[in-house]
């Protein structure tokens, strides 16, 4: 199968027919200098020849869309509603998004019978934690305008990180990688165990590294100064920061790194300074990202400058020995990456932090995302749905605790048998007394156990005034204690309050069906009316006595708008799920 990758810029249209498994190109074509509104004509002009290339079997069209805002954090099927929603993001990227949408409209008109999927530059960075996302601006203002760090070049950072992991023979989930995408636009990303946790571009692609014509970081006070002293307006600032700065502004001879290197070698001071500023800024980010991740296993250079400039790599890597990162100068000088040999290691053997040059391929990255999505959607029916049970807060008691709470003859009386064999909800109930508040009529699940265990939701913890850890069942060591009140007495426990780690019970045959094993951690997608959700960090528990069922707590169920069927402690819901392996990252779900 093939995927047509459409990359529509304001005055250009890049088309590429890619085999997603290998990245091989069946055909490609670039149309430059497209007049406004001319995308459809350009597409209609170029497409027939591309599709006529031998053996092309078009399964889908993938569109590069620069900004996904808060709305789009994974590849998304393009229909009219999605297209409208993307249009709403124009204020976040006023130059790029309209051009991307022109490409979408043209391609949908010309190829109405294949699925069209948007792949967002920002999506890979949807995993940035809040602390990395936020600018220290007034919160209300930031929220009103969607001002936060989104990050860009997502497909490239993800692609080269995956390639690097492959080369290192390790899972992406085991590595801390700093990816440096150095093209005309440049950005660095901290990829911590497979997730983007910091990236140098921000709300727009203007922040961060020194770029071809973009300034990257500047003191925001400089902008105020320019407005006041030069009388610049928004357009004037835009022009200076986006078009006249960066390598071009520093060197005075344009933005092409090859020219700058040559001039610097011939003694041009401005070009030397431009080169030094470029590498210094990048080294600074590498150091910062190593600190953010608490270490770094690999540094990856990619894109036009990263792949081709031995000098930039050499200068950047200077003084990174403290991270265990050192260049082998010969390997660095001789390094050449091609589509057939896309990864070259340029650090000495056994280096603590490996340095790699990786050829990026954004069209291949997009085609892969699209193919995974199209294939995955086709395969939903093949997976057995997993019933979801919602566990309300409840307690498990020891025999001694039952006596303390319900009297010397006290016992647990089954009210309702639960789906997991041998388990029952009891007639008896208890009150929980925490440091801040109490919760009455809390259910008990029998039979008695070896340890008391109190399973509450995060919301319950606030009410009780506790901070309980997330644990798998039975692991109560070092959890907070609590006081239980029964009709016959009180019992204070030293430990035992936990939030249940969401999990799926399954039999060995189920595990085989899904290709998982006991102890695996997976993601589960839930289709609900209006709050579709993917639960990550779901623990798989396999035993022949288990019934296939996913257990979540009430907070988790509410987040996905799932309802417990009736008043039982565990109840089947209407939710059905699809199982995705943990190694399918967030963006592909
Ligand atoms: P874009 O962001 O436009 O996709 P590229 O990834 O193609 O950009 O990178 C363009 C940059 O790569 C230019 O600054 C160019 O000078 C630089 N570049 C390409 N080849 C070399 C080389 N051999 N040495 C130094 N820089 C190079």
Can you walk through the features of this model?
This protein has 589 residues and is an alpha/beta fold. The protein folds into 4 domains: 2-120, ATPase, nucleotide binding domain (Nucleotidyltransferase, domain 5, 2-Layer Sandwich); 154-364, Nucleotidyltransferase, domain 5; 374-387 and 502-588, Barwin-like endoglucanases; 391-500, no CATH class. Strands 14, 15, 16, 17, 18, 19, 20, 21 and 22 form a 9-stranded mixed β-sheet that branches. A 6-stranded mixed β-sheet has the order 3-2-1-4-6-5, sandwiched between helices. Strands 9-8-7-10-12-11 form a 6-stranded mixed β-sheet, sandwiched between helices. A hairpin with a 4-residue loop joins strand 16 (424-433) and strand 17 (438-446). The longest helix is centred in the middle third of the chain and has 25 residues, at 269-293. Adenosine-5'-diphosphate is lined by residues 183-185, 212, 255-258, 261, 303-305, 308-309.
Secondary structure elements and their pairing?
Elements: E1 2-8, E2 13-18, E3 25-31, H1 39-51, E4 58-65, E5 76-77, H2 80-87, H3 96-110, E6 116-120, H4 130-133, H5 139-145, H6 154-168, E7 176-182, E8 186-192, E9 195-199, H7 220-230, H8 234-243, H9 246-251, H10 257-265, H11 269-293, E10 298-302, H12 303-308, H13 310-317, H14 329-334, E11 343-345, E12 354-358, H15 362-379, E13 388-391, E14 394-396, H16 399-406, E15 414-417, E16 424-433, E17 438-446, E18 453-455, H17 458-464, E19 470-471, E20 482-486, E21 489-493, E22 497-500, E23 503-506, H18 508-514, E24 521-527, E25 533-542, E26 549-553, H19 554-559, E27 576-580
Parallel strand pairs: 1-4, 4-6, 7-10, 10-12, 13-26, 14-17, 18-22, 19-22, 23-25
Antiparallel strand pairs: 1-2, 2-3, 5-6, 7-8, 8-9, 11-12, 14-18, 15-16, 16-17, 16-20, 20-21, 23-26, 24-25, 24-27
The site of adenosine-5'-diphosphate has 14 residues, from helix 10 and helix 12.
